[in-house]
Write a structure and sequence with these properties.
By secondary structure, the protein is mainly beta. It has helices at residues 30-36, 95-99, and strands at 2-14, 17-19, 25-29, 43-48, 54-62, 69-72, 84-94, 104-106.
């Protein structure tokens, strides 16, 4: 049996830009992606701490070490510049593997690694 578990999480980052005129996705600083193992085009769940919205989208790489967190396309209605969000990715695995799994979770300061 496969179950879905947290694979990686970027905890409490601030949206730096919100762009309705874009096909879609979330732009994430490449250094944050690397630290959590996120890859371009990977599906992620976004939890908006500021307004309670939740939505899913896919990742595109943003410029490294800029702290960019950009909400693009229709999702820009759900998260605005200045909102505090959590970005989570999940993986499916066998129950026994999941019992011993430890996700990668980072806590950036000002959207950057410390």
């Amino acid at each position: 049996m496969l179950i879905e578990v947290l694979r990686s999480k970027i905890h409490r980052v601030t949206v730096t830009e919100s762009n309705l005129d874009y096909i879609g996705s979330i732009t994430i600083d490449e250094a944050l992606m690397e630290a959590t193992g996120l890859i371009e085009n990977e599906k992620v769940e976004i939890y908006n701490i500021t307004n309670g919205e939740r939505f899913s989208t896919y990742v595109i790489a943003g410029e490294r070490n800029t702290g960019v967190i950009g909400i693009n396309g229709a999702a820009a209605h759900k998260a605005k510049q200045g909102d505090l969000i959590i970005i989570a990715a999940y993986a499916q695995m066998e129950l026994e593997e999941a019992r011993h799994w430890h996700p990668t979770v980072i806590f950036p300061q000002n959207n950057r690694l410390q």
